[in-house]
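<context>
A single protein, sequence plus fold
<entry> Chain with its tokenised backbone below
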Amino acid sequence: MNDHLCCPGCRSKGLVFHQESVECGNCRATFPVMWGIPMLINGIDAAKVKEAFLSEKRLFDSSILGIEKFKLDFHMKMLFYKFMKMTFPKLKSQYEYWAYRGKDYMDSFFDSDYIKLEIFFQNMLVEEMKRLEWRSFFEAGCGFGWNIKRVKEEFPQSTVGGIDFSLPQLYSGRNRYHKEFPEIATAGGDATNIPYVDGAFDIGFSLGVFMNIHPSAIRKAISEMIRVSKKYIIHLEYDEAHATRELREKRRPKTNIISHDYAALYKEVGGSNVAIEKVLDYRDFSAACKVFTESQHIQFSRWEKWEGPSKYIFIVVRKK
């Protein structure tokens, strides 16, 4: 799988892998290898990444009068929005956020019924892939590898890879899945500067990742998906134009969730090189989602109630 990787600076394939570093044979840039994971991100501070990885800090531990600070922060912002229609600037970078949250995200994901809800959307991806012709697949923002593991299970002959900029998540996924699926290659990478060569994979995918990318960087991320994906791009992401009014009102005050018009972005960035093949929203799959969730007997235990099927649109973009 290393033949798919390239230097995020000069795009050269001439990477030389060492035990603790990766060097670009062309521009001589070096990148750390941490716990066996190449972190191919420009400007990465290896010492800071390692410190965050080894730290006992947990993003959601601190509280005031027994109430977690992140809940207080959310409700404060919601009050400003509700009574003054005031919103706060969206986060320009979530790198540090996920450096710490990634330490316990996988555990919280599997310990709640949230996983059952996400399986519905994962099933949508799998069913779509069954109708397409492809041999290779990558996920931008693969986290701890839950989606790429499912794709490899469903399509064992395929080549599967993934990138994420959260070392703790990549490490968690490697520990959980590597023995079962050693052929799945993951690497540290930024969705706005993907360390894969042009046309590296037939299908590029994201689920709930691009909705964390700031508007100033989203066109770069879209351009990168077009560059790296040879045949198709599939997203399950948030577009408030396709969401219920209730969800729009709840998400607007959040600084880490950003709505994007993906169909318009692909037409703008990709031009005549892409075609929007499918755009589905909650009106298309709410009934099926209700049947599925009822069949799973879900007892949702997260602090926020489930946001419903309008949390995502399902969009398929075809390369011409």
